[in-house]
Each structure stands twice: as C-alpha cells, then as structure tokens.
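U., I forgot to send this yesterday:
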Amino acid sequence: MFTGLPDPPRTGWWDVECGFADSGESVPLRNDEERRALEPVVRRLVLLGLLEAQHLDGERPEGDRGRLADAVVEWAEREGPAATVAVPVGAGWQPGFVSAQLVRAGLMRNPGARPSPAHLYVRDVVLDALAGRQARLLAYEELPYRWGGRGDREARSVARARGLDATPYAVEVDRRAKAERIAVYASQIRHISPPAGRLDDPSVLPAEECYWQLGSSVVR
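Result:
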C-alpha cells in the first residue's frame, strides 16, 4: 500500500530509526525487499504507491482512500465469487488512561506496540469499500503487534460495527518457511522484533496464526 517515493525525497522518523538518510534510500530498498520476500508465494504483486505517513505533511489526502478502495474493488470484481480479501485486524496494546500514565512514569512495563495507524486505515477503507460485495472477508492478527495485545476484541468490535460476525480460527504455521520470508526484510527486522528475539528466528514466531472470518450475522 504505502510504497510511494516522495518527490523531492523526505526524511521521516522511521527512516532515521532504520539508519536511512531519507526516502530516496529507504523506499526503493524496502520495495525491493517486498518483491523478493513475496515473489515465491504470490501470483501477482501490486505496489499501490501511496506515501507513508512519515513522508506526509499533515493529514493523509482524501484521494488516497479512493485509490485504495478502487484498487481492491477492481481486484475483487475480477476474481469474482472466489475473491478472498484479508485485512489486518489491528492487534496491539490499547492502554486505558491509568495504564498509560503508569508506563509514562516508569511504574509499569510497556507491554508492546500499539496498533498501527496504517493498518487501521487500510482495514477500515477496504472493509467499507467491499461492504455488500461478493467477497470473503478475513481479518488477521499481525506481527509484531500481537505481542502488545491480541486481536480478539478488535475483531469483534470491527465486525459488530458493520453488522457482521467474527468467527475465529487458527492456522498452523510453518515457522521455518515464514522466518525465511521475514528475513528478506532485513532493513527493519531489528527495529520491530519483540523482546523475546528476532522475527527471523523460527523459534520466536507463534506456532499458530489467528484469523477471523467476517460474515453476515445470522438472526436466530
């Protein structure tokens, strides 16, 4: 989604965190990582070209919503009844007022990353765009955010807001194969890995991945 190259180049906070001078260094490298990581496992990869939030001045342009929605709807219509669209559920730590103050004061350990605003944006735009359309909708629990907070409550909330059910199920993970794919994202692994170890270490990865099927509620 957020693979666009600013013109002129910009220096964002995540660029600095990962050791890049600016977007002119970071974006091409990270897009190449994306291609190499996914090439063995996807039929067709499209880099949509929206800018990352770190490279924006102020709010995200409203036109980005339309570009994302149009791309997903076009793909779903091309795939027909077999279309399955997976969106990030929005896992992560969602602190209450008291716990946030305790962490800020150093009296409580930070449990982990908060939900990614980029993930929440994509999730909501895609689900809104596909409302009422013939597509199977899934939400998945993202790494590394799940270490901050599991996605169950968020999945139920997202589904309920749209008049849907969230049916959970778990999928067994080939942790070695997944770690090999993650290892391609070398520019970011050190910065997003949990305290337990690196994400490119199979032993650190969960043995199961959680998904929720988002479907129409059944009146009983």
